[in-house]
Design goal:
The chain is mainly alpha-helical and 104 residues long. 88% of the residues lie in helices and 0% in strands. It is elongated, with a radius of gyration of 19 Å.
Amino acid sequence: DVRKSAKTVRYAAEAAVGPLGSDAVVFASALEEIQETLGEFQDAGYTAALLASLALEDATDGVAGFIFGRLHAFEQAMAHGAFDEFSDVWDRVEDGELVSALGR
């Protein structure tokens, strides 16, 4: 829901670049980063769940299970990294500095 809302507000900010100026571009860019990082987080979560499911299948042997486990760990690390990036961008948007710049 946050990702979808960020997309909506981003498009509104992009549409208002003319009257609001370059600050709207910076705000829209931050919202785009929110969209991207949440998308990466979601993709990594889905992929990790799929890999865990594949590792538990009866036909999965030890080598494949090990590989699925290593890939699962990689996807978890990707999800953590994406969440950290999201937190950084969210802090920039939430502190209000980007939004208050639009009113100047």
